[in-house]
Design goal:
The protein is of the alpha/beta class and about 400 residues long. It has 16 helices and 13 strands.
């Protein structure tokens, strides 16, 4: 029996990527899926490119705007709820999965109005505003961090299944052992890293100005030939970053955008990056030790919470970002250069957090909850009732 899914939300890559990962897992089953999002978000381009149907709503972001902007946003949400309600009924959806972002609110409310089961996906350690508001009437909230469950309102049912990642990435690393012994190249063949330490610096597809300015200065404090640097700067800063490294006498390869992330993760010994939910999930899957510099202006400072989760697991070191202490970063790198065995422990700790089958597991649990799964799966789901937010989240 085919199940008809609606996946709602988007805006940024942090919402769209998990949505597409779920869409791939749903399509693998032969089910039908409709995406509901915003024409202003990344989903307007990425969802059709992935071969999925997309219904765009006129919703606008409400938080963090002027009074007039908030009024306009509120009215657009009301219009969007009606549009989402019609789309859900026209598609004859069996359930709605919200991945968060301001475009998700109208669809979540429409699911409530049309009495469709609602499920939420929350990749960050601190839940986003939309998911906090809609968690009360969701069947299950799927989280990527154990700590997230304590931040959910009321008696929200939750399961810690990890962050859904795109197929290309999880296929590249899903069969690797914690020390990446199955890798084809790079760090896995070297075992304990030997100088020069290979650094992968990145701040997302658009780069990060703070990292683009601070990392070259930090590396310049190290002894010559201590590290080998690959720096993804974003298009806007590429020339300036190249010039900065050259001026400081540091040899580095600078690119605007790295298209083959699995290869780059395999090449590197250490990442220096932000701490968005997707980045943190990718680091875990790749078994990549990291120096994390959380974006200081992220909503509810969720990147600091994300970074803290990896740091407490022993997979990363968190550095303050306001201001970025270049001397502290240089010292952290130098300590890892002189203690390569610690990098191996960090790799193992990172891989212990990986959930390569998160998308598939979320899809299967949704099906079990609405009674569309095979009988065996329904029985297993019934016997394994999802823990409430005050229970310990399973580590496996």
């Amino acid at each position: 029996m085919k199940t008809r899914w609606v996946i709602a939300g988007g805006g940024t890559g942090g919402h769209v990527t998990p949505a597409l990962a779920l869409g791939e897992a749903i399509r693998d089953r032969g089910d039908e899926v409709l995406f509901i999002g915003s024409a202003r978000g990344l989903e307007s381009r990425l969802v059709p490119e992935a071969g999925f149907d997309l219904e765009c709503l006129p919703s606008e972001q409400v938080m963090g705007r002027s009074l007039w902007g908030r009024v306009r946003g509120a009215f657009s949400i009301l219009r969007s709820v009606g549009a989402a309600r019609r789309a859900i009924r026209r598609f004859d959806a069996d359930l709605v999965v919200s991945v968060g972002g301001y475009a998700a609110m109208p669809a979540a409310l429409a699911a409530r109005l049309t009495r469709r089961p609602l499920f939420l996906v929350e990749p960050n350690a601190i839940p986003g505003r939309v998911n906090r508001l809609t968690a009360r009437f969701a069947r299950t909230v799927f989280v990527g961090f154990e700590s997230t469950r304590g931040a959910l309102p009321g008696r929200s049912e939750s399961l810690c299944l990890g962050v859904p990642l795109r197929r290309a990435l999880y296929r590249a690393f899903a069969s690797d052992t914690p020390d990446r012994a199955g890798a084809d190249d790079g760090a896995a063949k070297r075992g304990v890293p030997a100088p020069p330490l290979k650094l992968f610096v990145f701040g997302g597809s658009q780069g990060a100005r703070q990292l683009n300015e601070g990392v070259p200065a930090a590396i310049a404090r190290l002894s010559k030939n201590t590290v080998e640097v690959f720096h993804q700067s974003g298009e806007a800063d590429r020339a300036a970053v190249e010039a900065r490294y050259a001026k400081l006498g540091v040899s580095a390869e600078v690119v605007a955008f790295e298209r083959d992330m699995p290869h780059r993760y395999r090449w590197a010994d250490l990442a220096i990056c932000r701490a968005g939910a997707l980045t943190v999930a990718e680091l875990a899957l790749a078994g990549m030790p990291a120096l994390l510099v959380p974006y200081p202006f992220a909503a509810d400072d969720h990147q600091t919470a994300n970074a803290r989760a990896l740091e407490e697991a022993g997979a990363a070191k968190r550095l303050a970002s306001r201001p970025l202490d270049e001397a502290a970063m240089a010292q952290a790198i130098a300590e890892l250069v002189t203690s390569p065995g610690r990098l191996l422990l960090m790799r193992e700790a990172a891989r212990s957090l990986a959930r390569p089958n998160a998308a598939r597991d979320i899809v299967e649990h949704c099906l079990a909850r609405i009674g569309h799964a095979p009988a065996k799966l329904r029985e297993e789901a019934s016997a394994d009732t999802p823990p409430r937010k005050d229970d310990a989240c399973s580590a496996d």
